[in-house]
Amino acid sequence: MVQGFSRLIRSPVPLSNLIDRIAILIRIVSFFLLRDIFELHFYILKKLDLQMIEAPNFDSETMEKAAYLRKQISVPADLNSPFFVAKFIRGQNGNVEMARKRIEHYLLHRELLGYDKMTEDELYNVHPIGKPTFERFVISRMDETLTSNNVHVIVQKLKGTNLNEIMKVIPLSHVIHSYFMFQDMFGRVIAKTENRTGKPSSVVCILDLDGVNLADFLNPLSAPVKLARLVVKIWADYFSEHLCKLILINPPGLVSLMWKISKYVMDAETAAKLCFLDSVEDLKKYLHPNVIPVEFGGDWIDSSGFADPPESCCKSYIPVEKGHYRTQEQVWSDNGVLKPPPMKTSTIKSHQKLDIELSTKEEGTLIWNFTSSGDVEFEILRVENGKEIPVWPKITVTSLKLSEFGSVQVSPGHFILRFVNPSSTWFAVKLHCAAEIKHKS
What we know:
Pfam families: CRAL_TRIO. This is CRAL-TRIO domain-containing protein. By secondary structure, the chain is of the alpha+beta class. It has 14 helices and 13 strands. The strands form 3 sheets. A 5-stranded mixed beta sheet has the order 1-2-3-4-5. It has a 4-stranded antiparallel beta sheet with strand order 6-13-8-11, with no helix packed on it. Strand 9 and strand 10 form a beta hairpin. The protein is globular and about 110 Å long. The protein starts with a helix and ends with a strand. 31% of the residues are buried.
């Protein structure tokens, strides 16, 4: 091109022709410059698009294992999709048997607590465990019509949420059970999207840390850290492929400090799903504006009546007042027991179990109340013909600000309240427990 331009300049041609030739060369040069600019533009867009979050595909080995396991289990229609089983298999690093156990326990949990037949609104506003839990948190609803690269978005804001105070109103087990329900909402929406698109879907959670008290999380033995650790354990054990990314915005301190705190509550594999942003504007690097609330610079407005204000896409919460605090005896009065049974103290060594057995010849309400000095796996079983049948799902809990309590309707039979110390340390767990069956008559 340069040589051609030189020949044009040296050629003895009239000035008008020279100007025409120069104009042609300018157009040619402009064409190549514009081409390079467009190529650079699309390259940048492609690089930016690589940051956009999407649910990863499944390899053929995982899908083959999923097909094998799918033939052996029954998946409810509202959760069933081409990738439901594959999510659990990848979450268990290809271990089919462990994936089976996770699926079966999750499906049993939703059945025993009755949320398998409830809508999202009913989980928020009606369920006896979900309602008193969700009303204390600022969260959005799942909008199945909104996706970003086939991914759905949920928003939670921590401003005004005092975990220490909340734990004086509801027991930790309520939060654990409600987190299963929360993930169940994800699963239903994911299944619809996967069945509609034929591609994997997942959920991204935008967690707004504005207003959070960092001091609550600097002590690994604090109630907020213990709560977060057990909730994150459910995410890691059951739903690592349902919630593919946790984006944390408005961090109240140095990101390095936030990473240090994360080590208290999760393993390295789960921590890799975290993403700390310095600015809410950076959300657009990972998600399309249609799934980002207007409050955070996006286009999403929830005008359904759920959100307050609509631009936040999150519902308001009920702050804890001193009049809301529960006492240790309240579970008994709630169930009409005027004289609570005495608490009995036991010690449970590492990987040992403690069974508390109760029998009834009449229908009634099985009521329990306990505190523990450390983590315990707790469940309630019914014994029939030598077989143990779950009547209350197993979860891992520990005592925080309030004792663990609950009740369940039972028919005549023999029941076991089972406590297991899951720890591998030499520290024993001290348990204080009272349980009784109140007859209807």
